[in-house]
Design a protein that fits this description.
83 residues, alpha+beta, two-stranded antiparallel sheet, 2 helices, extended
Amino acid sequence: MVNRRVPPARTIPVARLVDGEVRSLVGSHVAPQRQARDELVALWDQLSPQGRKALLTAARLTAKEEGLLPEGQGVIAQDGEVS
């Protein structure tokens, strides 16, 4: 029997941690998707080039395993993609 990892369900966050305090996103003027994107961009900016390359490669390996990687797309991230 083969055990296959099931990806977690996609969820919309209802709260976030700000300066050690939990703040609700329900009723917030900022859409949760936009806020999540902004947080991902901030995290990306903090990564070193090696960390960015590793993250892109891991995401592509996951996409390939799930059958979501476009045909012809390489799995290993190139240096020019991490800037």
